[in-house]
Design goal:
The complex is a heterodimer of chains A (219) and B (98).
Chain A: H1 9-18, E1 21-23, E2 36-38, E3 44-45, H2 49-52, H3 62-73, H4 77-86, E4 89-91, E5 104-106, E6 112-113, H5 117-123, H6 128-139, H7 143-152, E7 155-157, E8 170-172, E9 178-179, H8 183-187, E10 207-213
Antiparallel strand pairs in A: 1-2, 2-3, 4-5, 5-6, 7-8, 8-9
Chain B: E1 2-4, H1 13-21, E2 24-31, H2 34-51, H3 77-95
The chains are: A alpha+beta (219), B mainly alpha (98).
Chain lengths: 219, 98
C-alpha cells in the first residue's frame, strides 16, 4: 500500500513539507532513516521516506505520534475514578495515564494496591494481594489427600493441615517420635522422621559433643 | 562445636572437619544418646545467638558447619566447654525417668 515514489526532487520535498518536516540531511534513500526537524513539536525526527508515503499514517514524528496517542486515549480523571470505583478500587492521587500504576485501595480487602488503569478497564482486576491469595487457594492441596500422603510415609498427622511448606506436627508410626516435617518434603520422598533416618547422628546410640578450636583463630 | 557418633575405624564428621578445615578438638563430652547431643548443641547455640547475641564467626565458604562457630574472643574454649557440661547436666536431669 505504498504510493508511487516521486520522480522529481520537488515532488519529494512536497511530501516532506506536507508532514511539516524540514530535512537536516541529504536524502538517504527510501528505507533509511532521514534526519528531519519536526515543525509541529520542534524535535528532531528520523522517519523513513517510505513511512511518509504510507497510506493511513497519522504521524511520522515519534514524539508527535506519542502526543497524539496520549491525547486520544487519555481518559478524564473523574471518568476514570468512576471506572475504578465501579470495579471496587478507590484511587489515591491524580490519574497518571493508562500506562502507569495508579495507587489505590482495594475496597473488597482494604489493602493498598496500584493497578494499571488499562488493566482495570479491560479486565476489571488489579489487586495483587487478592490475586496471590486466589492463586494459592487454587493450588491448595486437599487436607484429606495430604494426610493420606503423610500416612503413606508412616506419619500420623496430629493437627490440621497447615500449608504445604510449614512444619506439620506428626506422630511417627515406626518409632513413635513426635516430628514436624513439611508436607512438601514428604511428598518429595524425603524421610520425615529424624530418629528413623539411616544417616547422620544415631539418636538412640551413644554420641559425643566436641568443642573444636581453630588454631589460626587462637588469640 | 560439633556432635558425632563414636565411630571407631571410620572417619567421623569431626575427623573430616579436622582434616579438611584444620580444626583441633579441644574437648569431647560423651553423652548416652544422639538425641541428647543434639539438644545440648541446640541449647549452647541458643545461648550464644539469643542471649549473648553472637553471630556465627566464620562464613559458609570458610568451613563446613559455619553456623556452629563463635569467636574465641567472645567465648573462650574453657567457657564453651563449661556451657556444654552445664547443658548436659540440665538436659540429662530433664530426660531422666522419674
Amino acid at each position: 500500500m505504498v504510493r508511487r515514489s516521486p520522480r522529481t526532487r520537488e515532488q519529494m520535498m512536497a511530501v516532506v513539507a506536507a508532514w511539516d518536516l524540514e530535512p537536516l540531511a541529504p536524502y538517504p534513500g527510501p528505507h533509511a532513516r532521514w534526519r528531519c526537524l519536526c515543525r509541529r513539536c520542534g524535535n528532531v525526527a528520523t522517519p523513513t521516506y517510505a513511512s511518509m508515503i504510507t497510506r493511513g499514517k497519522k504521524n511520522v514524528c515519534r514524539e508527535c505520534d506519542r502526543a497524539h496517542r496520549r491525547a486520544t486515549f487519555l481518559a478524564d480523571h473523574d471518568e476514570m475514578v468512576e471506572v475504578f470505583l465501579a470495579h471496587g478500587f478507590e484511587p489515591i492521587g491524580p490519574y497518571p495515564g493508562n500506562d502507569a500504576p495508579w495507587p489505590s485501595v482495594h475496597l473488597a480487602c482494604g489493602r493498598p494496591c496500584a493497578p494499571y488503569p488499562s488493566n482495570v478497564k479491560s479486565r476489571g482486576g488489579g489487586c495483587e494481594s487478592c490475586a496471590r491469595e486466589t492463586r494459592g487457594r487454587n493450588r491448595q492441596v486437599d487436607p484429606k489427600v495430604a494426610a493420606a500422603i503423610m500416612r503413606a510415609g508412616n506419619l500420623e498427622p496430629l493437627v490440621p493441615y497447615p500449608t504445604s511448606g510449614k512444619p506439620w506436627l506428626c506422630h511417627c508410626l515406626v518409632c513413635g517420635a513426635h516430628v514436624r516435617p513439611t508436607y512438601d518434603n514428604i511428598k518429595a520422598g524425603v524421610g520425615g522422621c529424624r530418629p528413623c533416618g539411616r544417616y547422620g547422628l544415631d539418636w538412640d546410640g551413644p554420641a559425643m559433643v566436641y568443642v573444636l578450636v581453630h588454631p589460626t583463630h587462637w588469640p | 562445636m560439633a556432635k558425632a557418633r563414636p565411630s571407631p575405624g571410620t572417619a567421623s564428621r569431626v575427623d573430616l572437619l579436622c582434616k579438611r578445615f584444620g580444626w583441633v578438638p579441644y574437648a569431647r563430652v560423651l553423652v548416652p544418646t544422639g538425641r541428647l547431643a543434639y539438644r545440648i548443641e541446640r541449647a549452647v547455640l541458643r545461648g550464644w545467638r539469643q542471649e549473648l547475641h553472637l553471630p556465627p564467626y566464620l562464613r559458609r565458604e570458610e568451613t563446613e558447619g559455619h553456623t556452629e562457630t563463635v569467636s574465641l574472643d567472645a567465648v573462650s574454649e574453657e567457657r564453651a566447654l563449661r556451657q556444654v557440661l552445664a547443658a548436659r547436666e540440665r538436659l540429662s536431669a530433664q530426660a531422666a525417668p522419674v
